């Protein structure tokens, strides 16, 4: 089968297939089995991967702009350096990115609503203006990630590593940041209304003083006492 000429691969069984650098723009891979497939630097712009099995697939450097991953399984997939800008990773039953390697990936403007990113590696990833509403990022490596203007409303960031992450103007309302590491994270103008901030690590008064609001946020007593009342009210 010539994988470049054929554009409809719905339901195909291609575990371990070598598709490196292939041109797969607009390809239909709905419900396809691409477990452990090699898609390094493949062009999957606007591809339909709904329900596809990409468990442990190698997508390093792939062009995934605008691709649809709804309900796809990307558990332990390697997406290092991939471009996922404006892609659709919205959870239906669940886009599963648990343990995935997204180090340095471009996810600007991506829709990650309710996505499962538990334990994923997003070190240095670009998530600017992304919709990460209600996503599970528990224990994820988010060191140096760019979350400027991102929607993290209700996200689970418990025990996440946010060292040096940029959360400028990010919406963290009702997010769970318990036991997260916020060392040198930029929280300027971040909305932390109703956020859970108990037992957070390396959170300084200087960081808290720059947020947009901490109204109804749950803080450790020592941090609560440090703050001036103007930072507690909306």
Task: Kindly describe this structure.
The protein is low in regular secondary structure. It folds into 2 domains: 10-88, 3 Solenoid (Pectate Lyase C-like); 98-233, E3 ubiquitin-protein ligase SopA (Pectate Lyase C-like). Helix content is 4%, strand content 2%. The protein has 2 helices and 2 strands, in the order βαβα. The chain has a two-stranded parallel sheet with strand order 1-2. Strand 1, helix 1 and strand 2 form a beta-alpha-beta unit. The radius of gyration is 19 Å and the shape is elongated. It starts with 195 loop residues before the first strand and ends in an 8-residue tail after the last helix. 58% of the residues are buried. Mean pLDDT is 91; it is low at 1-5.
Features:
single chain; 234 residues; little secondary structure; Pectate Lyase C-like; 2 domains; two-stranded parallel sheet; 2 helices; 4% helix; elongated; disordered N terminus
Topology diagram in text:
Blueprint: E1 196-197, H1 205-208, E2 218-219, H2 221-226
Parallel strand pairs: 1-2
- CATH fold-level assignment of the largest domain: Pectate Lyase C-like
Q: Helix and strand succession? A: EHEH
% residues in beta strands: under 5%
How many structural domains are formed by the residues? 2
- Please state the overall shape, judged from the principal axes of the Cα atoms: elongated
The major sheet is characterized as: 2 strands, parallel
Strand order of the largest sheet: 1-2
CATH homology superfamily of the largest domain: E3 ubiquitin-protein ligase SopA
User: Could you give the distance between the termini?
Assistant: 61 Å
Uncertain ranges: 1-5
Q: Class of the largest domain in CATH? A: Mainly Beta
Number of helices: 2
The radius of gyration over CA amounts to 19 Å
* Beta strand count: 2
Secondary structure: helix percent: under 10%
Kindly report the average pLDDT value.
91
| Helix/strand/pairing category | little secondary structure
Q: Identify the CATH architecture of the largest domain.
A: 3 Solenoid
Protein name: Pentapeptide repeat family protein
Organism: Methanosarcina barkeri (strain Fusaro / DSM 804)
InterPro entries: 5peptide_repeat (IPR001646), Pentapeptide-BTB/POZ_domain (IPR051082)
Pfam families: Pentapeptide (PF00805)
């Amino acid at each position: 089968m010539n994988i470049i000429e054929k554009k409809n691969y719905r339901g195909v069984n291609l575990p371990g297939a070598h598709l490196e650098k292939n041109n797969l723009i607009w390809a239909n891979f709905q419900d396809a089995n691409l477990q452990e497939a090699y898609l390094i630097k493949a062009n999957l712009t606007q591809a339909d991967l709904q329900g596809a099995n990409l468990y442990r697939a190698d997508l390093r450097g792939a062009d995934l702009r605008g691709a649809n991953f709804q309900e796809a399984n990307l558990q332990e997939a390697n997406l290092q350096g991939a471009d996922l800008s404006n892609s659709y990773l919205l959870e239906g039953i669940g886009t599963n990115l648990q343990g995935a390697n997204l180090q340095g990936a471009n996810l600007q403007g991506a829709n990650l609503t309710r996505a499962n990113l538990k334990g994923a590696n997003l070190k240095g990833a670009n998530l600017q203006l992304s919709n990460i509403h209600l996503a599970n990022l528990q224990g994820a490596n988010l060191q140096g990630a760019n979350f400027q203007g991102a929607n993290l409303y209700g996200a689970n960031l418990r025990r996440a590593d946010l060292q040096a992450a940029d959360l400028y103007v990010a919406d963290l309302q009702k997010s769970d940041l318990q036991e997260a590491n916020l060392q040198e994270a930029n929280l300027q103008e971040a909305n932390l209304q109703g956020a859970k901030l108990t037992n957070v690590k390396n959170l300084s008064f200087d960081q808290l003083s720059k947020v947009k609001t901490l109204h109804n946020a749950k803080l450790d007593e020592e941090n609560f006492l440090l703050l001036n009342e103007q930072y507690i009210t909306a």
